[in-house]
């Protein structure tokens, strides 16, 4: 197979040795059909066993391999080497602490994810015998886009508000809250509202919109957040008018 | 060493592990459950499943049909009591998934939609576009967050099972980001660690599918059952092995050779028209389709490509609208990775290693012969798949048996105390730890990627779609050699923080053990059945081999193989008929 | 966590952003650029203007636009201050929303005086 | 503990210089300053209008003065930036679904530009005719 030599500059950070990250260059003979992840795997297998990064599916669905490639957060299994020149710069996702090399610490996101109650809260429990909830294709369409999130965290890496203040619940978690809110089977919106409509929730988002631009799954978190803002604001104002703004 | 106590430890947080954890939490909130996974739950490979999950819901369908399809599809190497339980339960489980929010695709009426799948007499595969596993996994994971009693250890690698007095009493885990090892004391352990496709070079399986749980149980003395049955999926993209779901054919896609001819009609699957017809042509079972490809290749009627010969998957007649709605991921994958847009072009595909029918031997309860040890999902072999799994049965399997294993584990732990031999327990755990530590000290010369490549190559040689005695023998010998050389493996990364070199080394150890059971079981089975096809024994041999093979661990030698009878309740072995003959067929 | 009262100024901000995006360019052109170009001299003459703005409906519309402009700007400047690294959000909010209130009041005053 | 996660801080005061899209975003944010200035000028103008013809003429004079012109050109440019950025974001914030179809963003944006043209034309005609 024909190959092309590409210089891959990888941000390395080995917590036991390094006080701060540095770039290390590798020359990789890349095949035409390779994605950036293939080049990293080549480095790992042939050049340097000490390079650490996460990956699993190689088909952009597990969400493990988010990295910043030439300045943009993206999935390394979805981005082809052939789309770059002779030099590719690979860094860990921005806005997260670096655990090691390209591996970031994502505990914060995992907490945020569960804080928005991302599960169906039905009006009443339904027995298995009574079968499925009916949901038309149109009703499905209303929230389907927001179910596509693979938790790759590219959006968090692109969102400056999260970078400036990591108390922000952030795009993917808020989009997920919206996914359930918009599901015809769900009535849990008010249960999610305390977190979603808090200072740290939707109101911390200033609609930079970068999250949607970098999202590899077209989840459109920016849109989900704006739509949530709208319904939440209406809720808040009607609540204020009718009940003196309880919360 | 630090000790964590729990009642039930679950190894693996894929579909099976999550379903099991939820079942424990629902069954009894007082039972502590610890869900351990080497990757974050939503990274588990269940997310890669595309096509769907089969379950009888429509009026034209019956449980009996699903039973017959599954038993026949598995070439009668299935345990029929388990299959019967499975087909009964799966509609309920899929409905439960719906109640938990799974975004199943719908009919206009609002009811869930179903699509046809290979080897199924009736359309019965529930699907969520072409990302069924992904949606199921995320639904399960997100639902699991509702239960405060489910505790998790994300990115913890389980290295060993702790066994004493003929019962399991915990696992040893390594926190990947610190390298720290901890003993998890548990009264019961459920292994849900997924498959082992990575023992082959060309596979749809993700990097994490290295058979760890299988190896763990096997080393602890639990036999691995029916390991010779490795499923090749007929339609993987060349170069990457990325899967194009059977749903492509379910929706009406066809397979053609280099002359544009639908060659499946030459292999007992025809006639080609009218199309689509269930259980015929492209909707035949996977083993038959992959085997037909092999023959076409031998006849020189396939298309050469830089990554081996291919056939063409033609979906152009489905039209853009249908493809976008039902197969959006397939379109994206084909365009990106094969440079072919299925709306306008033929997509090159070839058979690719996909699924392990075999696994940790369990009974219908999900229990292994070792007290306190359960297994479910792809790592287990409860024998509903037999010699060939029907597409869309495994997503159902991990729900049904994940839940069942969990319920039984709950019952078990309620009547069991922690093993009380503190010294022995400690010593065992320390032992496990020193084995890992020894790797850091090793002055070996063998490289992990090197051994892995050799292992992959020999597995493809000897345990491919068609097998012969000589080839399997060579593979057996080679794996034995690799296993010996592995003792001399060199760790190049000595960090304790997120050391992926170490992980790959441990995983390779598991892959070698599992590979050996595949090769030796294949060698011993001198017949052709389902996915195990031998050119030197072309016929199915029910007299000698209507039995499960059981591979037992031997620390120094090759695995020992013995056999276990298949459970037959109502369907006597018969010929598997597809194509025209399948129409009026009872079984 | 508690629901944030930001909902209210945000609502004004959003409503403002929408209305202003339609009306502002042409308004700015008419009142801000046309005079220098010597355009619309009749329309901008004192007589026509005072008669035009004298209409209560026009007053109401102008009041609406000006209020929204004040609140839109105030809310966005609050975010802006945050973006420029000024983290005393409460103080910033008090000042800016205070200014917006003053703006709203003076706009009303000015309109009433015509 | 062998872990030592490395935190990279975003500069609180200059982060927006790191990427073109952040610069565009900030430009849009800044537009609000000009909206405020315009509102201020207009309110003054209304006061002047209330004070009589001379005061009004004086205000018009300011508008046509070099400073007035520079200011208004800036305000105008930023108002265009605002309008374009706002319209571009509308399909995200406002998703319109007809049955199973989501109305394409282009259509929504187009409609907005249509309304913009109509409103502008209306005002211009009003100003020109009156
Ligand atoms: C591409 C593809 C498409 C498929 N499509 C379909 C389909 O359409 N229909 C269908 O029915 N089936 C399909 N299958 C099969 C099915 O998806 C899998 O068999 C099933 O998802 C396996 O689920 P699981 O829970 O057993 O394992 P997995 O989802 O693989 O999860 C394994 C878990 O174990 C953990 N683990 C493993 N080892 C360790 C260790 N040492 N320590 C700690 N944790 C560990 C992992 O982290 C992971 O959480 C498909 C499979 C593939 C690969
Ligand atoms: S919203 Fe998009 S970018 Fe963000 S985590 Fe989900 S898939 Fe990734
Ligand atoms: S980038 Fe950040 S500020 Fe909002 S629109 Fe996206 S979350
Ligand atoms: S490896 Fe799974 S998303 Fe890239």
Automatic annotation (TrEMBL), chain C:
Residue stretches spanning the membrane: 7-29, 49-71, 91-112
GO biological process, one term: fumarate metabolic process
Keyword terms: Cell membrane, Membrane, Transmembrane, Transmembrane helix
Record SUPFAM superfamilies: Fumarate reductase respiratory complex transmembrane subunits
Keyword set includes Transmembrane helix: yes
Pfam families named in the record: Fumarate_red_D
Any Gene Ontology CC annotation: membrane
Name of the protein in question: Fumarate reductase subunit D
Organism: Candidatus Defluviicoccus seviourii
């Amino acid at each position: 197979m024909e190959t092309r030599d590409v210089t891959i500059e990888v941000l390395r950070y080995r917590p036991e040795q390094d006080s701060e990250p540095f770039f290390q260059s590798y020359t990789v003979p890349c095949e035409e059909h390779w994605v950036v992840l293939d080049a990293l795997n080549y480095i790992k297998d042939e050049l340097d066993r000490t390079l650490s990064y996460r990956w699993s599916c190689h088909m952009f669905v597990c969400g493990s391999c988010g990295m910043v490639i030439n300045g943009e957060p993206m999935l390394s299994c979805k981005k082809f080497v052939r789309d770059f020149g002779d030099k590719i710069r690979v860094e860990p996702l921005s806005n997260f602490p670096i655990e090691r090399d390209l591996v970031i610490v994502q505990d914060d996101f995992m907490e945020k994810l569960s804080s928005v109650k991302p599960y169906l809260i039905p009006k009443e429990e339904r027995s298995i015998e009574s079968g499925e909830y009916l949901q038309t294709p149109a009703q499905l369409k209303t929230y389907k886009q927001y179910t596509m999130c693979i938790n790759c965290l590219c959006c968090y890496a692109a969102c400056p508000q999260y970078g400036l203040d990591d108390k922000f619940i952030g795009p993917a978690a808020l989009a997920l809250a919206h996914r359930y809110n918009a599901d015809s089977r769900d009535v849990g919106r008010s249960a999610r509202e305390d977190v979603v409509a808090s200072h740290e929730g939707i109101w911390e988002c200033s609609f930079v919109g970068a999250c949607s631009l970098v999202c590899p799954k077209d989840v459109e978190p920016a849109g989900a957040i704006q739509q949530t803002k709208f319904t939440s604001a209406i809720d808040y104002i009607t609540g204020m008018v009718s009940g003196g703004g309880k919360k | 060493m630090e000790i964590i106590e729990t009642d039930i430890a679950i190894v693996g947080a894929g579909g099976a592990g999550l379903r099991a954890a939820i079942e424990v939490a629902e069954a009894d909130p007082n039972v502590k459950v610890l869900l351990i996974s080497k990757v974050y739950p939503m990274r588990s490979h269940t997310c890669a499943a595309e096509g769907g999950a089969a379950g009888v819901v429509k009026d034209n369908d019956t449980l009996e049909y699903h039973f017959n399809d599954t038993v026949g599809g598995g070439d009668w190497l299935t345990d029929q009591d388990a299959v019967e339980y499975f087909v009964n339960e799966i509609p309920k489980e899929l409905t439960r998934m719906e109640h938990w929010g799974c975004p199943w695709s719908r009919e206009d009426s609002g009811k869930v939609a179903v699509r046809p799948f290979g080897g199924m007499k009736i359309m019965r595969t529930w699907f969520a576009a072409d990302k069924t596993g992904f949606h199921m996994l995320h639904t399960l994971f997100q639902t699991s967050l509702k239960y405060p009693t489910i505790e998790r250890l994300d990115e913890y690698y389980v290295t060993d099972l702790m066994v004493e007095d003929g019962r399991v009493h915990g696992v040893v885990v390594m926190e990947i980001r610190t390298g720290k090892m901890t003993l998890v004391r548990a009264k019961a352990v459920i292994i849900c660690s997924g498959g082992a496709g990575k023992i082959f070079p060309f596979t749809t399986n993700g990097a994490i599918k290295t058979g760890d749980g299988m190896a763990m149980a096997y080393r602890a003395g639990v036999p691995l059952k029916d390991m010779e049955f490795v499923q090749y999926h007929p339609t993987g993209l060349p170069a990457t092995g990325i899967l194009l779901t059977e749903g492509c054919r379910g929706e009406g896609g066809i397979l053609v050779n280099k002359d544009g001819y639908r060659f499946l009609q030459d292999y007992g699957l025809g006639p080609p028209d009218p199309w689509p017809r269930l259980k015929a042509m492209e909707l035949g079972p996977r083993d038959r389709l992959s085997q037909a490809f092999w023959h076409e290749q031998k006849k020189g009627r396939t298309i050469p490509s830089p990554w081996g010969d291919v056939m063409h998957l033609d979906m152009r007649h489905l039209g853009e609208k249908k493809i976008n709605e039902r197969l959006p991921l397939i379109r994206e994958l084909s365009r990106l990775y094969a440079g072919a847009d299925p709306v306008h072009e033929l997509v090159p595909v070839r058979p690719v290693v996909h699924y392990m029918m075999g696994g940790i031997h369990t009974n219908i309860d999900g229990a292994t012969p070792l007290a306190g040890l359960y297994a479910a999902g792809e790592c287990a072999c409860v024998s509903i798949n037999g010699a060939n799994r029907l597409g869309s049965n495994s997503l159902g399997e991990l729900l049904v048996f994940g839940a069942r294993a969990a319920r039984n584990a709950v019952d078990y732990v309620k009547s069991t105390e922690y093993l009380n031999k503190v010294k022995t327990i400690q010593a065992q755990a320390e032992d496990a730890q020193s084995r890992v530590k020894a790797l850091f000290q090793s002055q070996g010369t063998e490289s992990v990627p090197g051994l892995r490549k050799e292992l992959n190559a020999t597995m493809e040689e000897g345990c491919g779609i068609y097998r012969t005695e000589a080839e399997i023998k060579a593979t057996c010998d080679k794996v034995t050699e690799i296993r010996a050389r592995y003792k001399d493996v060199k760790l190049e990364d000595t960090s304790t923080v997120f050391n992926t070199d170490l992980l790959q080394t441990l995983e390779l150890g598991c892959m070698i053990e599992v590979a050996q059971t595949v090769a030796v079981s294949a060698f011993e089975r001198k017949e052709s059945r389902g996915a195990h096809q031998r050119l030197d024994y072309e016929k199915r041999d029910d007299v000698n081999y209507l039995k499960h093979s059981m591979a037992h661990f031997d620390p120094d030698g090759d695995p020992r193989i013995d056999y276990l009878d298949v459970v037959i309740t109502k369907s006597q072995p018969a010929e598997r008929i597809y194509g025209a003959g399948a129409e009026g067929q009872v079984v | 966590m508690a629901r944030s009262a930001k909902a209210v100024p945000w609502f004004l901000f959003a409503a403002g952003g929408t209305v202003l995006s339609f009306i502002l360019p042409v308004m700015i052109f008419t009142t801000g650029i046309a005079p220098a170009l010597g355009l619309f001299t009749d329309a901008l003459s004192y007589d026509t203007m005072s008669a035009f703005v004298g209409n209560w409906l026009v007053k109401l519309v102008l009041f609406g636009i000006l209020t929204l402009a004040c609140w839109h700007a105030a809310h966005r400047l609050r975010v802006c201050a945050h973006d420029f690294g000024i983290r005393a959000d409460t103080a910033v909010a008090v000042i800016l929303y205070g200014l917006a209130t003053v703006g709203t009041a003076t706009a009303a005053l000015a309109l009433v005086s015509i | 503990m062998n872990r030592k996660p490395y935190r990279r801080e975003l500069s609180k005061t200059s982060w927006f210089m790191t990427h073109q899209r952040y610069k565009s975003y900030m430009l849009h944010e800044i537009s609000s300053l000009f909206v405020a200035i315009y509102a201020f000028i207009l309110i003054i103008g209304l006061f002047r209008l209330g004070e009589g013809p001379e005061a009004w003429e004086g205000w018009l004079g300011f508008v046509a003065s070099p400073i007035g012109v520079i200011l208004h050109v800036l305000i105008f440019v930023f108002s265009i930036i605002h309008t374009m950025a706002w319209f571009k974001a509308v399909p995200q914030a406002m998703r319109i679904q007809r049955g199973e179809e989501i109305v394409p963003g282009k259509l929504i944006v187009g409609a907005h530009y249509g309304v913009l043209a109509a409103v502008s034309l209306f005002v211009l005609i009003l100003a020109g005719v009156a």
